[in-house]
Amino acid sequence: MKRILATIGVVILGAVSFHAVAATPPAATRMLPMPLLQRCDVVQAAGVRMEAQVPEAGMVLCEKDPRRPALWYAPSASRTLEDGTVQIWYQRVNKEETSYADQRTLCLGEIRNGSWALPAVQPGSPAWGGANNVVMIRSPHRPTWGGFNVFQIVADRAGLAMLYWDQPGPTGEAGALRAVSRDGRSWEKLPGAVFTEHNDAFCLLRVGDEYLAYQTALEPWPDKPVADNIGKLKRVISLRASPDLKTWSLQQPLLAPDARDAPDAEFYLFKVFRYGHGYAGLIMKYYADPAKPGKHSAILRHELAVSEDGRTWQRPYRDTELGFWSYADPFPVNGRMHFATWKDGALATVACEQDRLVAVTGEGSFSTPPFARPKNGIALNADASQGWIETTLCDRGGKPASGVDSQRIEGIEGTSIPLPWKHNELPEECSLRIRLGGGAKVYCVAEQSIRTIQ
Q: CATH 2.115.10.20 residue ranges in the chain?
């Protein structure tokens, strides 16, 4: 009887490596595209590994202003409209503005046809001149904790809903507040804080009829190596849930540094967004600065985490430094996936080709989970400019389809490399067996599109 070996997944150098073939039962049938993100996206793997990819510099949206050295921008949320316009809400921060209200404002920018513009959402000009793109100002009452920030925006039945942090009134504690809008330009603030537990740092995700808030919590840390601006406390990530953004569960522990992290590591922020058939998360790791005791540190690292359901998280890429973090969801511009971020006082993006957060590479083979037969044929989002990729069409159980040949790709790179099997040759439920080597990378299995091969 043939012996079946179990898969052994080992985390090394920010990668998941597969050393032996697994007898994995077929997963639920998926729809394309199918980006490769985590171990459940790669089955029956041997000799390959999954590697997080580091985005490169993208667009500069708001340049650093040398006349205003205290000015910086913090992107908060984004969405893509039906006509392709990308809306980006960002915070303009300048403590040197004369008015307290002008020192932190929520503004709106838009990318139309690949170009950045500031829409005039109100008449007149703001104190700093130009188009008045301010969509929300802070409470006139100084917060008991934190500041006017976060601004997490999700689609709601009536349009858009926001969860942000501010001081609700002259009395009471600062906390998470709500606002609603039909167009993202005019916002109605709703009264009352919905939770006040620290910290004023969270990201919001809507999953079906439930809202999840990934909030930074503060835990006692009497042996903290260096006390910073919050003293002997450790920043970790908690999860809380709500059916309506108004009533929230208590903070539940979700993510914290473990024995493999540096002894002074803290988890400052955690951004979650949908990616393929699962969820991707960006961890901002923070380290107090020994040279600046009692002060907030600028020592940060950034990591990609993955999840199948948004609640249970894995850290297979912990040793890969992503080089960025963002509150805002990624968005497409000219076929590339962008993340709005802040850098050296400017509002900018980092970018990669669509669906290329993670690559499968190495000298070996793997299979995909089963997927429904696409209308326009199958394509690979892959890079075989160096090396080669050989793809075999299979049924949902991994048996090679009869009457069709395997396809070999060499010397080519593209986000939609067509595999020339006819529609009537494809099983109703397909899977692919992929062999590769020589440095080739596979990022995603997709439906063929009209985009040209790069």
A: 56-353
Query: Taking the domain 9-52+359-447, which CATH number applies?
Result: 2.60.120
Mean pLDDT, residues 316-325: 97
Task: Return the SS3 of 186.
Answer: coil
Q: Tell me how far apart the alpha carbons of residues 370 and 27 are, in angstroms, rounded to a whole number.
A: 7
Task: Answer whether 134's CB lies under 8 Å from 105's CB.
Answer: yes
**Mean pLDDT (the chain, rounded):** 93
User: HSE-up of 266 (CA within 13 Å, CB side)?
Assistant: 28
Contact 128, 119 (CB under 8 A): no
CATH architecture of 56-353: 5 Propeller (2.115)
| The pLDDT value given to residue 17 | 76
The neighbouring-strand residues paired with 432 are 393
Residue (of 449, 333, 430, 322) closest to 381 by Cα position: 449
Q: Give the CA count within 13 Å in the CB-facing half-sphere of 125.
A: 5
Enter the tokens of residue 404: 């069709």
pTM of the model: 0.93
Residues of the chain with CATH 2.60.120: 9-52+359-447
For residue 281, give the nearest of 292, 289, 270, 290 by alpha carbon: 270
